[in-house]
Amino acid sequence: MSRRKKIYEGKAKILYEGPEPGTLIQYFKDDATAFNAQKHAIIEGKGVLNNRISEFIMGHLNSIGVPTHFIRRLNMREQLIREVEIIPLEVVVRNISAGSISKKLGIAEGEVLPRSIVEFYYKNDELGDPMVAEEHITAFNWATTQELDDIMALALRINDYLSGIFAAVGIRLVDFKLEFGRLFEGEMVRTVLADEISPDSCRLWDAKSNNKLDKDRFRQDMGGLSEAYTEVATRLGIFKDPNSALEA
Q1: Is 216 a domain residue?
Q2: Chain-centre distance of CA 221, in angstroms?
Q3: pLDDT digit string, tens, across residues 124-172
Q4: What share of the chain is helix, strand, coil (3-state, %, to 5)?
Q5: Is residue 248 part of a domain?
Q6: Would you state the pLDDT for residue 38?
């Protein structure tokens, strides 16, 4: 791994130069972070689980025509992805009240929202990823109006599809975070889904008990994070046997 050129290292992943022009290798780390990395731990096997879950979801989205940067999984911790120019926004889709929306608006956790809500946050750790409006985004040229239209449409389509996938295995999709990038193909530029979709970036609750199966277990010192992620993967059919979770 040391022989490869590192392009970028984030809280949970490392990007390396890919084997062909226009590709990157995305490596999933075992680091768990919360509150803009103020809280940090190493959870053995977390990167393997997120790699497999994100592969499963991205592959399904590709199959229904949602454009993503994902090409294929390479091994336990790595994916081959298309190189994109990341749009500096975190896009949050909310179906059920939890986290910041509950605190800011005084809505009880677990209350189903009147409709799915899409929020935008400016990707800047130093500023704490502040929530922004479409006016901010277009005024500061973080994204064009057309890109925002594409992002909104894709986010809601992804929400509909994932809500169905998770509901079918007894999981409620409470909310989730997406990132998008610009994929340059000759003179054409496409807006595509980037980053990952995993329990790190989703709130997932058991449909019957509301037991949390996501990173809130780490944020709230509940423990059992690996077991929860393994439960998600097993229900989705990624692992037939939970004991095989860390196998390639």
Answers
A1: no
A2: 21
A3: 999 999 999 999 999 999 999 999 999 999 999 999 999 999 999 999 9
A4: 30, 35, 35
A5: no
A6: 82
Full DSSP string of 88-105: SEEEEEEEE--THHHHHH
Note the pLDDT tens digit of each residue in 17-51. Answer: 999 999 999 999 999 998 877 899 999 999 999 99
73 and 90 Cβ atoms separated by less than 8 Å: no
Q: Report pTM.
A: 0.94
Contact in structure between 213 and 232 (CB atoms under 8 Å): yes
CA atoms within 13 A on the CB side of 211: 13
User: Quick one: 21 and 65 in the same domain?
Assistant: yes
Helix (H, G, I), strand (E, B), or coil: what is residue 142?
coil
The encoded tokens of residue 187 equal 């003179």
Q: What whole-number distance in Å separates Cα of residue 248 and Cα of residue 74?
A: 10
In a domain, 247, yes or no: no
Number of domains into which the chain is organized: 2
* 32: in domain: yes
- Domain match, 93 and 199 both: yes
Are both 72 and 97 inside the same structural domain? Answer: no
Q: Which residue range(s) make up the domain with 231?
A: 6-84+225-242
| 228 and 199 Cβ atoms separated by less than 8 Å | yes
CATH of the domain at 141: 3.30.470.20
The residue type at 6: K
Of 167, 171, 149, 24, nearest to 86 by C-alpha is: 24
Q: Please, what is the average pLDDT of the chain?
A: 95
The tokens for 208 are: 């019957």
Shared domain for 70 and 132, answered yes or no, is no
Cβ atoms 178, 93 nearer than 8 A: yes
